[in-house]
């Protein structure tokens, strides 16, 4: 197994599941299950025992391996600089071993099968991939278009995700950006398939997208989701997928006016907001300031920080395919539930994020925690659209 050589170097000090102040926990799987076997250190030891034959594959071991949300907090907080960067890749490699053996939890199997059969996890026809934009007059990407707006699976097919896709597309139209979409020619970015260890499927999806991008003459890509941004920026170049890739917040930060007088006040009173860092923008790509700089331009907003923020941010639990497999997303002790409680405790009225998966996860957690009267979840583009009138 790749990265097998680092497994023996972990002695389970436990720092990997803690934030910098050691005051709470940041590992979604550990928060839900509260067994050391679900922590990064426990998973390292179990992987080593499994590879040596001391532990056999069973449903519980599969659950432990695939509950990892690939949030990257363990990499951020491991105290061993010489191998910390390989920890998450070792966990993904262990999943890949299980995938190759055909021993994966049924929800993971079903998710990967849907991706292979339908090019999306919703089992919806590719012909409908551009339907979210039908009422906006968004044009197909052509050689004369400057930017490809890549929407992804959640933005194309999830009800809430489609609302966010329309919000971002409306902003790009209002701001005069020359952009288009591929519609039915767009495919799943594959980021979460790779996080689940299905390397062959990821390569298949990546090469299909790269071919579609190149045939359309795409040079610049703006993504709706941080997951797609991560895949295109960091992994697609392995197959000559070299494009200028930005998340939509990067583009907004460039072209939105800095003068607050140019915006429309969204309410009569100042709203207190707090920002949730999506893992694939934050820890994976070190993008902590762009979204905050946009929030700071909007009128009548007071921004406050949660105790766990930036590199210490608590994952919503939806990464690593868990948004679709639900191995750490349900029950009373989820990271999303802890996150919305943390946001409410700051006194914030609005919890803002810049990821469709995070938005859905956090909105569901607000409802589960009965916090609707105290806290509203908004996607960043929606606040910007309000401020622009």
Q: Largest sheet, if any?
A: 4 strands, parallel
Integer tally of domains: 3
The rounded Rg comes to 21 Å
Overall geometric form: globular
Secondary-structure-derived class = alpha/beta
Helix content: 40-55%
Note the beta-strand portion: 5-15%
List the helices and strands and how they pair.
Elements: H1 28-33, H2 40-51, H3 59-66, H4 73-77, H5 87-101, H6 106-118, E1 147-150, H7 152-157, H8 159-174, E2 179-180, H9 191-195, H10 199-216, E3 220-223, H11 226-235, E4 244-247, H12 248-255, E5 271-275, H13 290-295, E6 301-304, H14 322-325, H15 335-345, E7 350-353, H16 356-368, E8 376-379, H17 380-388
Parallel strand pairs: 1-2, 1-3, 3-4, 5-6, 5-7, 7-8
Keywords: 4Fe-4S, Iron, Iron-sulfur, Metal-binding, Oxidoreductase
Domain 4Fe-4S ferredoxin-type: 7-78
GO molecular function, one term: oxidoreductase activity
Characterise the protein shown here:
The chain has 389 residues and is α/β, with parallel strands linked by helices. The chain has 3 domains: 4-104, no CATH class; 119-253, Rossmann fold, CATH 3.40.50; 258-388, Rossmann fold (3-Layer(aba) Sandwich), CATH 3.40.50. The protein contains 17 helices and 8 strands. It has helices at 28-33, 40-51, 59-66, 73-77, 87-101, 106-118, 152-157, 159-174, 191-195, 199-216, 226-235, 248-255, 290-295, 322-325, 335-345, 356-368, 380-388, and strands at residues 147-150, 179-180, 220-223, 244-247, 271-275, 301-304, 350-353, 376-379. The strands form 2 sheets. It has a 4-stranded parallel beta sheet with strand order 2-1-3-4. A 4-stranded parallel beta sheet has the order 6-5-7-8.
């Amino acid at each position: 197994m790749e990265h097998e050589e680092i497994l023996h170097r972990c002695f389970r000090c436990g720092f990997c599941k803690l934030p910098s102040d050691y005051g709470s926990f940041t590992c979604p799987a550990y928060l839900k299950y509260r067994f050391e076997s679900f922590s990064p250190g426990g998973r390292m030891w179990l992987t080593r025992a499994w590879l040596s034959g001391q532990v056999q594959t069973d449903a519980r071991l599969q659950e432990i391996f695939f509950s990892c949300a690939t949030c990257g907090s363990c990499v951020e907080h491991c105290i061993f600089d010489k191998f910390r960067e390989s920890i998450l890749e070792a966990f993904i490699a262990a999943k890949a071993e299980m995938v190759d053996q055909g021993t994966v939890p049924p929800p993971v199997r079903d998710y990967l099968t849907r991706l292979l059969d339908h090019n999306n996890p919703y089992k919806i026809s590719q012909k409908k991939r551009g339907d979210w934009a039908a009422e906006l007059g968004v044009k197909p990407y052509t050689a004369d278009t400057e930017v490809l707006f890549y929407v992804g699976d959640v933005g194309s097919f999830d009800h809430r995700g489609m609302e966010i896709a329309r919000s971002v597309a409306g902003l790009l139209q209002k701001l005069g950006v020359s952009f288009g979409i591929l519609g039915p020619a767009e495919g799943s970015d594959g980021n979460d398939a790779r996080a689940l260890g299905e390397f062959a499927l990821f390569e298949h999806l990546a090469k299909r997208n790269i071919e579609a991008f190149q045939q359309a003459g795409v040079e610049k890509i703006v993504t709706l989701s941080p997951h797609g941004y991560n895949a295109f920026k960091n992994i697609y170049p392995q197959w000559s997928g070299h494009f200028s890739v930005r998340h939509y917040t990067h583009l907004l930060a460039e072209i939105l006016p800095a003068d607050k007088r140019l915006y429309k006040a969204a309410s009569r009173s100042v709203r207190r907001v707090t920002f949730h860092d999506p893992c694939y923008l934050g820890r994976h790509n070190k993008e902590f300031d762009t979204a905050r700089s946009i929030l700071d331009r909007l009128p009548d907003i007071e921004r406050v920080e949660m105790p766990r923020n930036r590199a210490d941010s608590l994952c919503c639990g939806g990464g690593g395919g868990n948004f679709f497999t639900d191995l750490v997303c349900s029950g009373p002790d989820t990271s999303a539930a802890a996150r919305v409680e943390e946001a409410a405790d700051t006194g914030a009225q609005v919890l803002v994020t810049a990821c469709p998966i995070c938005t859905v996860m956090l909105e569901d957690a607000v409802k589960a925690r009965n916090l609707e009267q105290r806290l509203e979840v908004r996607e960043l583009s929606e606040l910007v659209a309000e401020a622009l009138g």
